[in-house]
Amino acid sequence: MSALLEVQDLRVTIGSTAAVRGISLSVNKGETHCLVGESGCGKSITALSIMGLLPKGSVRETQALRFAGEEIGGYGERQMEHLRGNRMAMIFQEPMTSLNPAYTVGSQMTEVLRRHRRVTRTAAVDRAAELLARVGITAPGLRLGQFPHQLSGGLRQRVMIAMSLMCDPELLIADEPTTALDVTVQAQILRLLAELQKDLGLGILLITHDLGIVARVADRVSVMYAGEVVESAPTVALFAAPEHPYTRGLLTCVPVPGKVKRDEPLGSIPGVVPRMQPGFAGCAFRDRCPEATDACAGSFPRQNMSNDHQLLCTLAPGWTGSAAA
Amino acid sequence: MSTTATSAPAIEVRGLRREFRVRQGIFSAPRQVIAVDDVSFAVPAGSVLGVVGESGCGKSTLARLILNLLAPTSGDVLVDGKRLADMDRRARARLIQPVFQDPFASLNPRRRVRDIIAMPLIAQGDVATDDMNRRVAEAMERVGLSRDQAQRYPAQLSGGQRQRVAIARALVLRPRIVVCDEPTSALDVSVQAQILNLLAELRRDLGLTYLFISHNLAVVEHIATEVAVMYLGRIVERTESERLFAAPRHPYTRALLASVLTPEPGLGVPDVGLGDIMPDPANIPPGCRFHPRCPVAIARCATEAPKSTADAAGLVECHLAESVG
After folding, report:
1. B222 in reach of chain A (CB within 8 A)
2. Scanning A160, B144, B226, B261, which has the fewest C-beta atoms within 10 Å of its C-beta?
3. Pairing state of beta strands A58-61 and A32-36?
4. What was the ipTM of the complex prediction?
5. Confidence (pLDDT) at B324
6. Closest to A272 (Cβ–Cβ): which among B55, B158, B217?
7. Tens digit of pLDDT for each residue in B151-185?
C-alpha cells in the first residue's frame, strides 16, 4: 500500500535561514506519525510547507511531495485550496487565534463545507451539529450560535477538531493541538483524536515538543533537530533503544514521577538550537553533543538499522559513551 | 504540619481570601468571583511547596497575594512570624522575591542585563556603587551567566538565559523566599531541565524556601517537598510530595495524576474520568465544589461541603477520604 502522505527531501529556506534541511517522512492511512523536537527546529514549518501555507519570501524544494499517490509539489494556489480543509486539514495550537472571533462557531464550520461541497445551508448546519456532538460537545445547537470567546479553551479546541472533520479529510495535520490546554483537558482531546482516527481511518501528522504525548499516541516518531530528522523509528523501538545523542539527551531531561530521584539533577543539554545558514555541512548538533568527534564536521550517510529505524549520526548503533545512561 | 515542620516556618499563610467583582456585560450586574478561598499553610525554611491545579484554580492569584502584588480581602501572610502587610516595600523585597513564567514579559527590553539585575538594589536606595557591582556580579555567577552577558539586552539572550537573569534579579537581595510562578512553562524541555537543576542547587546552597506554582505535575514532583492541590480557590489536598504521588486521597488529585503523560509507550492516553463540565470560578457549585466532575461523588457531596481534615497523612477535603491515624 502506498503512503497517504509521502515527503522526500523537503527543504525550506526563509530569507537567509535554512529552516528545513532535507526531511523525508511518510504517513499511512490510520497511522499517527509524530514530529518531535524543541522550538526552532522546523517542525511547524514542515507542517505549513506540506499544506502550502508558508509565509511570503520562503522557498520550498522537494524531490517528491505526494498525497494519496498524487504529486502535489507543483500544485498552484487554486489546486491547493481545493485540497486544504477538504482532503487534508490542519489544527493549530491556539484555537483562539485560529478561529475568527467575529463569526459564530456555526458560520465558520458551515463555511468550510459549503466551500468544498454543494450542500444546502441546512444540510451544512446539520453536519456541523453532528460533528460537534461527535467530538463530545453537549448541546451542539447552542454552541453553533456562540462566538469563540464564549467557549473554554478545551471546547474551542474541540470545535477546531470538529471543523477540520467537516469534509471527511484523509489527512489531519495537528500542530501542538494540546499545548495551550490543561493536562486534564489534554488527555481528553488526545483520547478523542485517537478515537476519531480509529473510526475514520485518518492519517495524522502530530507535531509536539512533549515526549510524553509522543510515547502515548504515536505509531512512528521522527525526532527533528535544526531542520533535519536526526532519528526516526517505530515508537516502541525509539523509546526502548534511542540512538541519537540528541534523542537520548531529550529523554533524560524529562522528569518522570517515581523514576528520577528528587536530589539528583535532571539530564540537560547545554546550549540552544542553532539557526542554520544554507550550505551548512556536518552534524548540526555537534556543538552540543557530548560524543562529538572530528568526523561530525564532515558529511556522513543516514544509517538504516533493522526494524525500520533510521539514524543520522556518525556513531554506531548501540554505542555507549561518556554521557550514556 | 507535624509531619514536616521540624524547623520554624519561613512563610505562613493564614485564612487567605481574595474576591473579585467581574462584569460579564455592560448591563449585567457584577458577579462575585472568589479566586482564593480561605487558604492556610506553612512552609518550613528550606522546603519547597508545590502548588498545582488547572487554569482558573487561583494558583497565580495566590502567588500575587503572597507577593503583595494584590491585597487580600482577608487573611495574612507572615514571614518569620511577621506580617508582610505591615512592612514597607523595601523590607518586603528583602524577604520575598518572584520569578515569573515568561522572562520575555518580565524583563525590561530597554535595559541591559546588569541594570535589570541591579534594579532591586537601586530600589533599596542605600547601596554603594562598588557594593552593587560586586553583588550583581555575584548573582550572575551564581545563576551561570557569563560576565560578557552583563552588557546585553534581553532580546539578545535565549529563553533559558533570560530566565537566569530573572532568577539573578530575584537573588540579588538575598531573599529568604522565592515565589516561582510557572518558571519553566515557557521553556523547551532541555532548557527546563537546566533551570530546574539550577533552582534545586540554589535551594541547597543558599537555604532558600520556594513556593513553586506549576501546572506540570512531573516538574512539581521533581522539585517540591510538599504539594498543595488547588481546586476553585481551595486547597483540596496537601501532603508530602512522595506521599501525594504514591497515595493520592482526593479524587481530583487522582485525576490530575492520571492525566500526566509519562514517556512510556504502549500505555495509551488514560481516561481521567472528569467529564465535560469545566470549573467556573464565578459559579462555584454548592456542596463539594468538585462534585459535578467527580467520578465517585455520592448524594451527600452535592449538598454538604466537606471540611478540611488534617491527620498524619496530611490535609484533605473530601467526604470519602478515610482518615489516617
Report:
1. yes
2. B144
3. unpaired
4. 0.85
5. 65
6. B158
7. 999 999 988 899 999 999 999 999 999 999 999 98
